[in-house]
Design brief:
354 residues; Rossmann fold; 2 domains; 18% strand; globular; disordered N terminus; disordered C terminus; EC 3.6.3.-; AAA+_ATPase; hydrolase; ATP binding; ATP hydrolysis activity
Length: 354
């Protein structure tokens, strides 16, 4: 699989992800993160939604967290935001561990903002655009010029002239305009990082490129970092500097976006990419049951659905037994290309993981 996803249409002046700075110190970091939930109907077995994750996001970097529904990526994002307290492990921001006291969390959420998938659901239909954007300022006791701050945020989000939108209601806006209002509501607090959960999933294809271009422009102009949670590898290709592929609570492949998406090493990443129209060839049809966080299999957590194991290729390499019985370590949070796969481990250019 060497064909890359084709980019969505974006303005010619839009900066590319490769132009981002790459400082070495992390802005946001997760180390050994685990989140478990009680089993259904009082069952003794807990659901391991996040089952050991290390992840770093550097200043000015956009990281895409990719995986199918139910893999744990939204729970991981909510944990990084402080909305879910981890069962074990830690989250640090700016080198300091996240403090879960209410006052500390309030200060933290001013610096790290969430952009939700559905702008219609995240905007109060009874609030004007002005009130929707000003809400964060009021919650955090902003004492400056509120009108100027709201106008600046709307302008940065591409709604110009901003005053034209002040008294409008969400139902009077297009889907793209509503998403820009949501983004303005995050920008008004001048955060250092945004967590965008499927930021263009509910938008028409013609609007998606505009929103992606906006996020890239904000990174360039404001030095904004972002974690973009998505199931769409095409979106990751267009916006991210680095990609982390998640499966059943754990990151199974990570690295620079071009390296991972043009030469995927993990069979799961290969399967995700195979269904893109640009991939060519036959899509990989995964067998077995979908992921269940309360029933983590022994060995490689993907082995029960793995096309490499099913085809006999893993046996040819002498790793079939290891795939079924030997667990793989947690990948490091940043650095070069890494893969948690017995079959792929040891191949050129990949950090060995197991």
């Amino acid at each position: 699989m060497t064909t890359s996803p084709s980019p969505a249409p974006t303005p010619s002046e839009t900066p590319t992800p490769s132009e981002s700075p790459a400082p070495s110190e992390s802005l946001l970091s997760a180390v050994g993160l685990r989140v478990t939930f009680p089993g259904r109907h009082g069952a003794a077995v807990e659901a391991r939604a996040v089952d050991g994750v290390d992840l770093d996001i550097r200043p000015g970097e956009i990281v895409a967290l990719v995986g199918e529904s139910g893999c744990g990526k939204t729970t991981l994002a909510r944990t990084l935001l402080g909305l879910v307290r981890p069962t074990s492990g830690r989250v640090t921001f700016g080198g300091r561990p996240l403090d879960y006291a209410s006052r500390a969390l309030k200060a933290y959420r001013k610096r790290v903002q969430l952009v939700l998938q559905d702008p219609s659901g995240s905007l109060n239909p009874r609030h004007t655009v002005y009130d929707a954007v000003a809400e964060g300022l009021r919650i955090h006791g902003y004492t400056g010029d509120e009108r100027a701050a709201v106008a600046q945020a709307l302008s940065r989000a591409g709604l110009r002239p901003p005053e034209r939108f002040f008294l409008r209601y969400p139902h009077e806006l297009s889907g793209g305009q509503r998403q820009r209002v949501v983004i303005a509501g995050a920008l008004v607090l001048e955060p250092e990082l945004i967590v965008a959960d499927e930021p263009v999933a509910s938008l028409d294809a013609s609007v998606r490129g505009e929103i992606l271009a906006l996020l890239l422009r904000l990174r360039t102009e404001l030095g904004l970092s972002a974690l973009v949670v998505t199931h769409d590898l095409g979106l990751a290709w267009n916006i991210a500097d680095r990609v982390a592929v998640m499966y059943l609570g754990r990151i199974v492949e990570t690295g620079d976006v071009e390296q991972v998406l043009t030469a995927p090493r993990h069979p799961y990443t290969q399967a995700l990419l195979s269904v893109l129209p640009e991939a060519g060839g036959d899509p990989v049809v995964l067998t077995g049951e979908p992921p269940d966080p309360s029933r983590i299999p022994s060995g490689c957590r993907f082995h029960v659905r793995c096309q490499i194991l099913a085809s006999g290729k893993a046996a040819e390499e002498g790793v079939a037994d290891a795939c079924r019985t030997r667990d793989l370590p947690v990948l490091a949070g940043s650095g070069g290309a890494q893969v948690a796969c017995h079959w792929a481990a040891g191949r050129a250019g990949v950090t060995r993981a197991g």
